């Protein structure tokens, strides 16, 4: 039964919009967020908070 939830919460890679190439890896709930995920997180390469978008 543990493998059943993988289709609801897939692992996604978030890439920085600042162009530094920094990424975060997280899980996304497909039912609550059917669109591309956008989170505001810290980019240590430029030392600022920027938007991170879901990579395809």
Automatic annotation (TrEMBL):
<keyword id="KW-0687">Ribonucleoprotein</keyword>
<keyword id="KW-0689">Ribosomal protein</keyword>
<dbReference type="GO" id="GO:0022625">
    <property type="term" value="C:cytosolic large ribosomal subunit"/>
</dbReference>
<dbReference type="GO" id="GO:0003735">
    <property type="term" value="F:structural constituent of ribosome"/>
</dbReference>
<dbReference type="InterPro" id="IPR018264">
    <property type="entry name" value="Ribosomal_bL33_CS"/>
</dbReference>
<protein>
    <recommendedName>
        <fullName>Large ribosomal subunit protein bL33</fullName>
    </recommendedName>
</protein>
<dbReference type="InterPro" id="IPR011332">
    <property type="entry name" value="Ribosomal_zn-bd"/>
</dbReference>
<dbReference type="InterPro" id="IPR038584">
    <property type="entry name" value="Ribosomal_bL33_sf"/>
</dbReference>
<dbReference type="GO" id="GO:0006412">
    <property type="term" value="P:translation"/>
</dbReference>
<dbReference type="Pfam" id="PF00471">
    <property type="entry name" value="Ribosomal_L33"/>
</dbReference>
<comment type="similarity">
    <text>Belongs to the bacterial ribosomal protein bL33 family.</text>
</comment>
<dbReference type="InterPro" id="IPR001705">
    <property type="entry name" value="Ribosomal_bL33"/>
</dbReference>
